[in-house]
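REQUEST FORM: STRUCTURE PREDICTION
Request ID: SP-0412
Submitted by: Lab K.M.
Chain count: 1
Length (residues): 157
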Amino acid sequence: MRHLTAALLTAALLVPAPAFAGASEDAYLSRLVGVWSGKGTLSGAETGKVSCTLTIRQRTDGVNFSVKCEVPEFGPQNFSGVISYNDATGKYEARSSGGDVTVGAKKGSSIVFTADMKGMAEGTSVMTISNSRVVVDATVRRPGGTADIKSHIEMTR
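STATUS: Completed
RESULT:
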């Protein structure tokens, strides 16, 4: 279950790739800088509570982020990466430490990243980030599993 929890949290907190951005994209990303914290739940085939802290720091081409989530039964889970804007594609990008890139799109005043997960669990993760709130929703199923595990995490500054 420890690896599945790590997969859920990794999927929930996607990591971006460096790219060049225009002034409005850089300004938007710079407004995300700060320390965010919040709580969430696991439900469905497995249940529990999740507590997370997200730190976003300015960089030349986007923002760095680091995340620490605590799941009482499993201990801390840590993730980090970069969120940036790719002028060539007109999209925001997140790249995991493993090199996976998740593309995000601006929707209203938010950026929405949607990732399909494969590996130790299969499913979908959606992270919506705005100037006031970060929401992560994931639905996964373990290989050979018969029921979904859902996570919902909300963070604010």
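NOTES: The beta strands are 34-44, 48-59, 62-71, 75-86, 91-95, 101-107, 110-117, 122-129, 134-141, 149-156.
Reviewed by: T.R.
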